[in-house]
Queue: 2 jobs
Job 1
Amino acid sequence: MRISFCCTDTASEPWLQGLRAALPTAKVLLWEPGAPLADYAVVWAPPQQFFDEQPQLKAVFNIGAGVDALLKLRLPPNALVVRLDDAGMSVQMAEYVCHAVIRHFRELDAYEADTRQGNWSFRKPRSRADFPVGIMGMGVLGERVARSLVGFEFPVMGWSRTPKSVDGVQCFAGEQGFADFLAASRVLVCLLPLTPETRDIMNHANLSRLQSGAYIINVARGAHLVDDDLLALLDSGHIAGAALDVFRTEPLSAGHPFWQHPKIVVTPHTSARTLRSESITQITSKITAIQRGEPVAGVVEPSRGY
Ligand code: NAP
Ligand code: GLV
């Protein structure tokens, strides 16, 4: 069995070593143009040429959860496309989102500003009931985030394409549930995949439906958010602030207003990183399962975009 590794912006040697150690009978090769045909591919942002030269792939493993960039390429028609299914990401995402919600709710930025000035002063405690958190996308990551926020006793709402039932979470689904979901949310977390249906979903009309003093946390993809609409609603005061981890152009371009905006916290697409060891374990066990003819989790449906 041959496995071809083709990941841009990734140090390849530790991955190759890890894949070889986990599947000692496989030939694991770093792809280069003209490389021999492989059975499986491990990829991140590969060039189109990679797929054009690898028509026999049985499965393509993406070393990220989001497949929006991968699905823009012409893929071998018979290859399964498999994304990372948690692999250590959901706990990181829960840390990031809970931190952002709590930092905003407890006014920790304001406290830090005060204490840097030598001010020992208190703010009036706020009620969690006034900070209902709505999570768009209740998949592997969204559900874990929702459960974690329930643990901190925030009112939590989730919105997904198909109906869900999660203890302690008020679940909404589909277009018919969207307006009620937004109206019930003050903090909005985006954990949707980027698809034609979800692109630009955080636009002026939808963000305006959130409760006044809303807070936006985007940890999915930059193209979910219409940048100028967020800026306008921050100016009007309808939105109180935002924590943004993902951007339309990454790295965020120099001079973009988000960098210096006093109500926006920017992080460099780091809320849930791909963890090499967990990912190798997951991918190699799925290769073994596919070889045995067994089903695997995390298979993408290209027609729905995730
Ligand atoms: P997932 O398990 O596929 O979950 C996606 C969720 O979105 C599902 O609940 C799905 O609904 C829902 N959804 C999809 N289209 C929808 C629509 N049109 N309307 C309503 N709900 C819709 O994905 P995941 O593993 O949780 O990852 C989510 C996204 O996070 C990834 O696609 C990626 O873009 C992003 N991400 C970001 C980072 C980072 O570091 N910033 C790291 C990892 C992932 P159903 O359950 O009904 O199918
Ligand atoms: C990161 O953004 C991912 O999709 O895994």
Job 2
Amino acid sequence: MGMWLVIRRIPSWVFPLALGVLLIFLPMLGLDYGTTRNLQLACILALVVSGLNLSLGYAGELAMGQAAMYAAGAYVAGLMSVHGHTDLFLQIIVASAVALVVGVVTGIPALRLGSWSLAMTSFFLVLLIPDVLSIFSVQTGGQNGLTGMVPATLFGGTISTEAFYIVVVVVMIAWFAVFRNLVVSRHGVAFRTLKQSPILASAQGISVYRMKLTAFAIGAIPAGLAGALFANLDLYISPLSFSFTIAMTVLAASILGGSASVYGAFAGALIMQFGPNQSTEFQDYALIFYGIFLIVGGVLLSGGLAKYAKLGIAKLDRMAGWAPPTPTARPGDALPEQAIAGEKLVVSGLEKSFGGNKALNGVELTALPGQITALIGPNGSGKTTLMNMIGGFYRSDAGVIRLGDGELQTLTSDAVARRGVARTFQTPNIPEEITVLEAVQTGRYTTDRVSMLASILRLPKYWKVKHEDHFEAMRVLELVGLAEQAHEKASDLPLGNRRLLELARAVVARPGLLLLDEIASGLDEHEIVRLAELVRQIRAAGSTVVLVEHNFDLVLKLSDVIYVLAQGQVIAEGTPDEIETNPRVLTEYLGISVEEVSS
Ligand code: ADP
Ligand code: MG
């Protein structure tokens, strides 16, 4: 067990890299031709699978067009070779660029339509490959395949068979490094947020459509790389290599290895290449086998091998008593006064109907920085609707929502979030499989931006933002009292702590406007006291807070101004003292106010 503690101290990327380097040297240790060839095919397959993992496992879209992008990459490289452009480096660049274009062009309409159309469109894209190749049979050789490729060169010299093997493995290692860097960065967490809750993602300023398209486009690159390598392996390609079976093999490998994983793509590809792909009898029944496998595997193997690997590591951690080092905040890290530049919110004449049901009927409301503005009213009076309209989740029928010197009513929810509006959800919305610390950091996704390229290449900007993310998140975690749980799984927290976590996530970006929807419901007295204290601190820091709350007592204690909503209209507004004694409120709100006030 002591051994495990030593292993745990080594950065985790060292192990796959070591395995990759070992793979380079395998043939020199006397591996036979057949196995070496299969290893190359496994590496090529792993590249294609990793592209699917990015869109399916991370961004949550079943985009199966990888086979088409793989074909595009292969034919681009093949045609370049036939026309005398033998430089492999150039072929790889052009092939992945073309695959990227195919990915984006086919992804745009499909993503516009929604998830199932994307699955179907990409499906048909694969079925179309032989036809497209036949149409251009003069160039591609049609069904007979593309002949006349010449051995590739690199830096002017011909690549030997042995050297080509090394090139294949090195390209795979390089791509997996890119993929891994992307996935462990904040963008990887953003992809996973997107997969689990597009609403949460857009509340954090992420454009769902753009982000999915990005995943789709980036996933096309390794397919293009794989195509170029594959074409140069035998110097011959035909439509048979890009049949429907390859699309199914890719999907099966992805699920087997674990779609939401990086190295699972290689494990799945290895198993598919050395397993089913070996027997010719199997090939005849491949589609039936894959059909059964996908149904059974989809049910039994959710998470794939990667999940079992993670469970195994977690078990060894427990046995060895290993725990991640507790992260620390910088000293003196309370949220300073005036840390948040709150913005004035003015809602005027806001109307919203759902069918014939007028949920909001000319709402007027003003919320000031450094104040808590509460919104109360019976169920169905339009409180959540109003919050959703301010957040850009619903379009208004009429009226203006002003924040600072800009207007929000025409913006989409992600644009509203980028304007500095943060919110919590009536039912806590916390993605699975991420830690408490990561969950809070997602709140900063659009405040301190760092590009995907900078994250992949680990440029100084990436490290700077990473550190800021860490410290800012730890600062608010300490504030809400969850610092100890920073490395726990966020979705495992009890309800009270999940609400605190949501609050931390909303505050970490220092929003100009903070929308809190029933944050106290389901909490015990203790938790409510802590929550109230927190909201007061956020007010003191300068934020504009709008609070929807059923707990009248809490509202009276906490707020500076109270608006009472009934049937989509503001029926009263004033200080807690005024509202408490307002006769109209007492009658309209009777059931709640009388018992709450007297208790
Ligand atoms: P509250 O949060 O004050 O309980 P809501 O804003 O959720 O009230 O609801 C106000 C009214 O609008 C209710 O009559 C509700 O049925 C209706 N409503 C809210 N959201 C929708 C929706 N997405 N589609 C149709 N009707 C809705
Ligand atoms: Mg509500």
